[in-house]
Design a protein that fits this description.
Layout: H1 3-13, H2 16-28, H3 31-48, H4 56-60, E1 64-65, H5 67-76, H6 81-88, E2 89-91, E3 97-99, H7 121-125, H8 138-144, H9 149-163
Antiparallel strand pairs: 1-3, 2-3
Length: 164
Amino acid sequence: MKPEYLSLLEQVNKQPKAIKKTIEALKKMRKGNVDSLIHTLHDEAFESINCLECANCCTTTGPLLTHKDIDRIAGHLKLKPTQFINKYLRVDEDNDYVFKTMPCTFLGANNYCSIYEIRPKACREYPHTNRVNQQGILSITKKNVTLCPAVAQIFIKIESRMKS
């Protein structure tokens, strides 16, 4: 991971109270304003952050896989869904299918995903900061701020705006 990405993550990980305060402030804002703010900052973050230079999500956080994901990926790999499940997945504490091991089996040494075109929905949507109804997923965003440099950058900018 690039040093500047590590620096962003270190900055937010040192300030859990600031993150909590920012989350609470976002909860109190008008729904549309939160989406507008986070979506704008999402676009800015991904102008300077390249996921292929990071891949922290793929090395640390397994996505949950839907039945559609399982069917699609199994078909691509020429496996039956049950074969795919037995080979690659486990059921987690929330009764969801997740990968057995991390880093992700499909992550290459160059940080490219070998199933990128058919990757799980959770991977396609990560880090979820461009989704509608950001207030509804603040608990997810709170977790991602410590894992994803783009989300860390978004929160640093929100915090800075709140101070001024």
